[in-house]
Amino acid sequence: MNVKVLLLIAAILALMFLVWVIYRITERLISLEAKPDRIYQVIGYPKPQTPASQPPSVSNDLFFGLTGESLFNALADEDGGVHTFEEDARKRYELILRKHILFILDQVREGQSNIQSEAMIGTLRGEVLSWLPTDIIDLIVRDARALVSNPTNSISISNINETISKLYERLSLSPPGDFLSVGDEPNSLESEQQFRSEQEVTIDEEFQSEQELESEEKDREAISV
Fold first, then answer.
1. Predicted structure pTM score
2. Sheet strands (E) in 31-155
3. Is residue 53 one of the residues assigned to a domain?
């Protein structure tokens, strides 16, 4: 047989084999793409673990990422009305505000004099930077110091309650009622009847508030679905 013919036949057979190999490889790749986990089994590498996505901070979402003075001004509608807050946001902020006020009262009771407008307030969802106007803090501190000297000073108690009530109105929050009340005993300032500790007030009340808010969020999600 002619050598050229043999070479031609060999070339054709080699080409056919190459086409078949390419076809099989393509078919295999398509099969692996349909089952991504098989790729890692074939190449012998462990499947990379996808890091668990962190749930977005509810507080940040509700507050549009605002903290401190900017959050206060936005809730008080003193920033030009850029943000519109849901009721849940105001409920969460009320909890932060209440703890900030109690923190100020604790500082006064401990004899601290340099009380700042800003404070990091701990919550079940982490710390939040809170801010109160200087004039509000000055009024609370003035009357709180009077209570340190005389725990049954009803005028100072009334002044603190009035200051806090106006603060809540400024922030469009539900009125807190009487924040402080006159104790039955002369030394009631040292008890929870008068200055309730910022730390002691957190656990039960905050947990209850968080449960109520989370329940409302789930109800809203169910309705939206």
1. 0.61
2. 118-123, 126-131
3. no
